[in-house]
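User: ok so my PI wants both of these folded by tonight, can you help

Assistant: No problem, let's get them done. Here's the first:
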Amino acid sequence: MNKKIQHICIVFIVLLLVNFVGDKLYKRIDITQDKRYTLSSVTTNLVDSLATPLLISVYLEGDFPSEFKRLQIETRQFLEELKARNGYIHFRFVNPDNFREQLIKKGMIPSQLTVEEEGKLSEAIIFPWAEISYKNKKEIVSLLPNTTFKTQEEQLQNAIEKLEYSFASSFDLITKKTKKKIAVLAGNGELDDIYLYSILTRLKSKYRLAKFTLDSTKNNPQKTLKELTEYDLAFIAKPTERFTENEKFVLDQYINKGGRSIWMIDTNIADTDSLYNEGKMLAFPRDLNLTDLLFSYQVRINNKLVQDLYSAKIPLATGNTGNQTQFQHLNWFFHPLVNGHPNHPITKNIAPVRFQFTTQIDVLKGGIKKTPLLISSELTKKIGTPNFIELQSIAKEPQQQEYNGGAQLLAVLLEGTFSSAYKNRVKPFNTDNFISDKHSNKMIVIADGDIGKNQILKGKPYDLSKDKWTGAHYGNKEFIFNAVDYLLDDIGLINLRSKTLQINLLDKQKAYSEKRFWQFLNIILPIAIFIILGGFYTYWRKKQYS
């Protein structure tokens, strides 16, 4: 009896020790092939920094298409990983049916989906959003990124791949005490605010924006340079007036002191108003006096216009029916439609980007790393300027043998140590701390000033990601926003956009066409086998024991 008690006590003590050790050495193991549940170092650092409770409300609850149940499951599993990492994180799944209007007022626009079940189509509305509450701040997270050019299966794939990026970027935003500053340059004929409204509104949610002019370089260039260096990024959108040497030197030193920059440059004057009003226009070179500055960064923007057979459409009046003008949407080869670098975090999974009267970029040899972001198709043709462009040319059948110019570089990312354009030259003005090539830096150069220009509809700015005439969706807005994120991202957060997962999705057409076969295989066949085996067993018993 005593030995039994001793054995019980030993087993009890061993169980306590195992439980204690298991609690202290708690470890989650990701055995998936693509490590989809393994958090990146960027995410773990953000999660570990949380020192007070954080609540995540996910509005993926209720009745919605079975495919998007997968998104609900993947979101729950990802949030469980976050909670396991930091106990301050709490989450809940909420059915949005009773307070839809409140969610819409907060900016959570529902998604309307087309559901196919048993060969029949129906509509469903879901709220693929989450809301993060931390201290006195709130931030919303889109769980279904805008991917208009994709099927629902591809949308789901993209949404699951971006779960970590969506939540990690929101954690970074909600925990930051200060926002980075962007200087929107003005004074050299850049685009007016109304034409930048769409992209600046998007950027304003994450960064501090301010208009900055270089006019004061005439009287006090040292002060202008000092004030500009307080900004993290210079946003230069389609300047149309020549830069003075003082202004160029201010930009040069700003960049060499670590300031990031986005250049959206038109090297030609192309008045589209006269094109529509008069049927033709004269495109001719614009002298911005930036060639030597960009040359020092090992790029050159040419003056030849690029035509591309893969292009966006424009509306054109083709006749009248009664008193109404009839319009037809035709391809306009001067508006190339460009796909982005498929594996770079700036351009991965974005819709094609529309360019308007763009030119082409040459890259020069040197130590700066040059990453092509947007490249035209192979079917291109270059036209020198000055040159007349006639609207009636849209009716001409293109001769494919003429469009043999090959792929043209339209936007490039530059990373490395930039040399000053004034390194071995006389300086326009004296500065106490001239830097020739000290800091590693990043910039993006785009050979089109209109890439960030939104349209105007009834006197109000229109969404940059959509064309007001054709209704076509473009990736311009997403591209510029991702570009700014990449340039100002010091912790590698934007790299999570390029995360790739292998999601096995159901082939609906195959499942529907083979429905009877799989029903027979999974339901009737097992029952039939069970009955046959039971009959054989009964027959064997009777024969054995009769």
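One down. Here's the second:
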Amino acid sequence: MKKREFLAKLRKKLSVLEESEIDDITREYGGYIDEKIESGATEEEAVSSFGSIDELAKELLSAYKVKVKEEKEDPIGNFASKVLHTIDKLIDTLSKKSPQEIVKFVVEILILLVIIGLLHIPVAMLVSLGKDVFYILSSPLNRIFFTIWRFVLEFAYFILAIILFIRIFNARYLKNVEVKKEKKNSPPKNAERKQKEVVEVKQSKGAISTISELIVKICVFFLKFMAICILFCISFYLIGMAIVLVFCIYLLIHGVMYFGFYLVMISLFLLGLIFFWILFNFVLDRKNNGVKMFVSLAVSFVLLGVGCGIAAIEVAETEFINSPPSDITTETLTEELTMDEDTIFIGNISDYVVDNSLENVLVEYRYYPLGTTMSTRITKDDDYVYLDWDLENIYLKGEFLDHMIRDLSEKKVYNYYIEPTIVITANEKNIEIIRENRQKYYQSGTNHTSCDFVRTYFIYTIIDREEDEEESDTLYVVLNEFQSENLVTVPISRALLDGVTEGYYYEFTFNTYQSYIDTDIENIFEENEVVSIKKTDKPIDEQIHEDSCSVFY
């Protein structure tokens, strides 16, 4: 603390005394400081030799037999004073710089901001890694965990970026700056001192200073209000993470050995605690131990990185099966509907079953009863029949939870479908009408939508029938699928077969307007469009044979 700041604070602490008495005391202590400086001490050392200014003021007031009430510090006022003091120092620094130096100052600030921005790259990489890890889980758990993961990392980066900017800015530009520093070889005369004090009092009570302090106090109040709101959210986060940790212990007891995932959860919980404590101290104006906080953050992030690495290895060792377990059976809801030649069924129909004994149409909703109550919601509007459904009372049955835990202990993850699959059962004529009407509907200008799927075939022979001029742009390909003995000849555009040779496996990419794909080779080539053919060297058990697209309408 400098001499001037010390005497100003001492004057404020002694404000209950007469003005003349305060002048005598401050003049006396100013002389003490000057004597210590002349003896070789620095200004800060001379001031610090008096100890705590609060204790000194109490001793002086007790000597005058004045009882002083214990006053609570005004933390907001102190923080506002620090902010105003920093602004004054910055203004004082810039006022002494030439235009060239100011330009250099601006450039350096921009470079500092760019560097801090580049430090976001590893954060973005961790966010992306978390997305890859958490999205292995089923919805909505994957979104919940990923949102928590992203919030913690982004919030940590935000706090650390602010701390880094303030530390560098203060060390680079404000560390050795003292506002309106006046070096004096001897104490000023009483008249000069009094005149200066009057000017200082007027300045401190000026309108501009008062407005500035008010603005800063409002900003601090707003920041604390935001911090309280964030604390409220973090409290729920910590409660949720505590529940997750208890569930992790439950999984560990039941033989689920995903230690990387457990480390990630522990580190996320610790990070939440650290940020809670930082904001809690900020709201209550308590000082944070910078070293302890930095070490805690560093340990948490190291733990997080190690957990992510181990989790990545464990995920690589896990078998992901894109279907529910074979021992879980579906339940069925059935609706019987009438139709005519203009009826159009709108919905994600996954399969058609021919039953020539039926006059009407049976719509079956097949779903896995994971605890979800399913109900149909079929509505009719003129010729349109909308096949919808409702999910009610979503929860997880104990038997399914036990099944999932048992699968995880064996490092297997199944895809439990929540949405139902819709199967249409009707006679052959009605099914043909339904498919034709849906094809026309989804290929219309208004409802045009499509998706791609891939299937792999072995090409035996390519036949060129040049004698037929109408088919001169078409070649005939003899092919079959793996584990199929049936050879089928299909027409394919000559342009798509450029570079294709006989005796190899090729991946055929089709474009379709239907979610259901008939696996019959002739029907696939007849009802869908081949958009590309690419040679593949994949082993037979890794070849692509997609039976349906994801939902696209």
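The chain is about 50% helix and 15% strand. Residues 75 and 285 are 6 Å apart (CA to CA). Good luck tonight!
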